[in-house]
Amino acid sequence: MASHTPPSPAADSDDISPVTRTAQRARAAAAEIAPLPRAVKDEVLLAVADALEARSAEIVEANAVDVAKAREAGTSETVIDRLTLDPERIRAIASDVRDVAALPDPVGEVVRGSTLPNGIDLRQIRVPLGVVGIIYEARPNVTVDAAALCLKSGNAVLLRGSSSAYASNTALVGVLRDAVEGAGLPADAVQLVPGQSRDSVRELMRARGLVDVLIPRGGASLIRTVVEESTVPVIETGTGNCHVYVDAQADLDMAVDILINSKAQRPSVCNSAETLLVHQDIAAAFLPRALDALADAGVTVHADERVRAHAGASKATVVAATEEDWETEYLSYDIAAAVVDSLDAAVAHIRRWTSGHTEAIVTTSQAAARRFTQLVDSTTVAVNASTRFTDGGQFGFGAEIGISTQKLHARGPMGLPELTSTKYIVTGDGHIR
Amino acid sequence: MASHTPPSPAADSDDISPVTRTAQRARAAAAEIAPLPRAVKDEVLLAVADALEARSAEIVEANAVDVAKAREAGTSETVIDRLTLDPERIRAIASDVRDVAALPDPVGEVVRGSTLPNGIDLRQIRVPLGVVGIIYEARPNVTVDAAALCLKSGNAVLLRGSSSAYASNTALVGVLRDAVEGAGLPADAVQLVPGQSRDSVRELMRARGLVDVLIPRGGASLIRTVVEESTVPVIETGTGNCHVYVDAQADLDMAVDILINSKAQRPSVCNSAETLLVHQDIAAAFLPRALDALADAGVTVHADERVRAHAGASKATVVAATEEDWETEYLSYDIAAAVVDSLDAAVAHIRRWTSGHTEAIVTTSQAAARRFTQLVDSTTVAVNASTRFTDGGQFGFGAEIGISTQKLHARGPMGLPELTSTKYIVTGDGHIR
For the complex shown, is ipTM > 0.90? Predict the structure, then answer.
């Protein structure tokens, strides 16, 4: 039996909630946009980009309402800065949409194909997922980025931003929908989830059969809630407790550069390093230099006893690490640090504490590089490179809907192909078994 | 922060449940077997096959306990037949294990690879998922099949069979574990989930962070329960409300052959057809023949009014269809049948009622074949071929852990690659951003 037959759009009636109704409309729109060829989708995206620029003033005006509210609520200037839109930022967002239009269309790609022994032609091709739900916080540019990536991959999108950006998101989605409709496509391919309460998120998480995947983007507590409560399949994103391990044999200059870049180039993002592990054989040579470099970068070191033993002459701010430090994603100018007995001890520490995002090894030993990449089980293992490279843009994917830290469906930076599923086409001449 | 850090094996203590403890041991074993090269894994599988044959008598004896209990409980002979093991069946199971050993190892396959503009080498490689949980019913051969596929793909497996096969599964897992241990690998790579109550299933479903994926295999209600309640990611399998659509232009002989093969070659499996849709222009020519052929095959037809209009002279058993018939997976000698106005009406019917498994079109029209394959959104779309081909063995995958009817991670028959995740290896020479 069809255990997950969704309520049909025809069953639309008063006892259906606004969220369910929205999801039903998305499902109907998804069926219309899934078969569209690339040219049509690109045209829509270019129309969206033009419309964003043309209606810049309207968007800025709506954004000002959110900004004023945030300011009244005593929100920090950092967060207000992320929330704020001006004509220049809107031009940048429009430019990102044009970049998405320029990316290849993942839909229709033949992933696997062969002629079976009985003469049947078998093709596995990429198809859109259907309806993609994104639950996200603060930054209104995510609204446009996510919609553009979903449209390009033939998916309808349900956007559930934070209430602090509600006016901005409403204006942006209005512009998007008008552009989609202007190109002759169903506006319901892009929708804001109605309601600002937790209940609307909860309903979205229970809309199995209507929504094909939920992607939560934001803080750890948001992601945990969605993972725990959703019956819709979830792609977990973004928590990054990343490690830099300096092996017994390592180029010390390189190790310092990679450590500082991994930690301090942009500490607020998920691919920045949070823990430094140092092989005991190189600790005396490396740690004094590393601690000074961290001090220069303004980083506080949460160090175990063995690291602290090398901190004497250093100008670094060093505090004693507690067990909690090993699992903390600081997202700030802080780093945990420990000396380990061996590469295997480093691997064991990482396996115990990592969120599975990115771990780097700095080593001149081919054997060590090989063992570390084999044993570490995270989305990305970097050898003699900064953890900061785990990024859709850096990987050449052109754009990214998030970084999956789970093992199912997608792992690591997710580009357009990760927004697709596949189906098999079996072609015969009357073949039977 | 690491929101899903699993309890460490070191934290093992009396207040941890037997299921959690089992999962922790599986996790530790998974880390040991993940990096094993193919030769070692194949050697284990061949040892397993030999041991199954050598200890055949012991397995048959344990199985007799289950069979006697089933007979006392008044279980049907069909189910008892599925449950029963004899030396010949055990030889067949051992032979399947040798076939799995002969398959290529998915682990280590480079899925994507390039040198980035900055000189970094990027490789996306297949890695084991980690710990795979399988929840299944009746047939004890699944115990061995699933364990063999998981071992070959470098995963540890947690097996939760039905209580009706508990003695058989205990004996089989005993043989498997001894063979694994005899090859110098951790026996805990293969474990039966302790306990026969619903609670042990519930605990397994909440073991997020310890278990990487749950694959329920069995009836619709089991699958629905797992999908609804699990916080561990789930791959939904197997419900098949499959359709055969006969287009306005079709070879009538071919259409009859495909219909009868799809429905009656083996009605109890998920890729058998459950609904026939016929274009109105061909109904008068096709239906009388089709109904007679269905009658010859012993199939009862649950027909709409327009089909019944053609049933007058037929020897078929025809009953009036209710709406429930459109969503029923009979798994028996029954089929629902309707006349549709057009190909698009057939697609609409399918989209409304299908479980998304397999749909076939019989047509001589290239345009119709193209439109049907584009618009139908199921794991497999067959053109002029039986629905019965949706199968890992038929697709040339060599073995199958199930047929996914969801869109995330795997869709359609799942072979060894579907039991893997990927990780990215980033290799530089001191690259920083």
Answer: yes
